[in-house]
Amino acid sequence: MPRPGAGLFWFVLSIGLSVGGPSAAAAMRISDTEIAVFETLINHGLDDDQRLLVIAAETTGDPAAIAEHGDTAAAVAADLGVPAETLDSWIRMNATVAAIDQPLRLDVSYQLLDDHERERLFAAAEPQLAWSQFFARYEGAPGLLRLSRAGFDDDRRHALVYVEYQCGTECGAGRLIHLARDDADSWQVKGAVLVWMVE
91 in helix, strand or coil? Predict the structure, then answer.
């Protein structure tokens, strides 16, 4: 029997498969500053025994749909202490998707999962079968990580990113995460708010 929220999770994954496309992603380029934010965020969340990470090759886009899964993005950003212009930037940046086409300096091996391969893996009508195909293809990976574009305040001292982790039909979570740049110009994770979770 499916756990509560399993339908929501599959709905979120379906949205992720349909948002944007190669032409939309090709038009947007991710900045070096965003890449540095992604690297900090991913390395911060790694488990010690993690061997492989699978990352969606395109950003999530569609912040309005993200916000519908819990509190509004504005309320979450306020809880995190994110400056208002950071949220505004995040919304603007995620109006379209972008390709993650620069190398990431991570403390783990990773592979990018492009839309074509993702659609092939998740084409099965039965969600359990789709995830079985994913885990067979990416042996040792705990799931699929998806990132939004980063929004910044005017001084680029604060960043806001939505991170979605999907690990099965009854397993996944989405969080908005606040990062801040310290005096040494290094990004640090300052806080996170859970937007949705299925377990």
Answer: helix
Residue 112: closest CA among 133, 136, 141, 90: 141
Among 46-50, 65-69, 92-96, top mean pLDDT goes to 92-96
Q: Do 90 and 148 form a contact (C-beta atoms < 8 A)?
A: yes
Tokens 């604060």 map to which residue?
158
Residues 6 or more apart whose Cβ sits within 8 Å of residue 185: none
What is the Cα gyration radius of the chain? Answer: 16
Integer CA distances (angstroms), 56 to 82, 111, 130, in order: 26, 9, 16
Q: Model pTM greater than 0.85? A: no
Q: Distances in Å between the alpha carbon of 5 and those of 118, 144, 147, 182? A: 22, 18, 21, 38
Whether 118 contacts 56, CB under 8 Å? yes
pLDDT tens per residue, range 102-160: 999 999 999 999 999 999 998 878 989 999 999 999 999 999 999 999 999 999 999 99
DSSP per-residue codes, 15-31: HHHHS--HHHHHT-B--
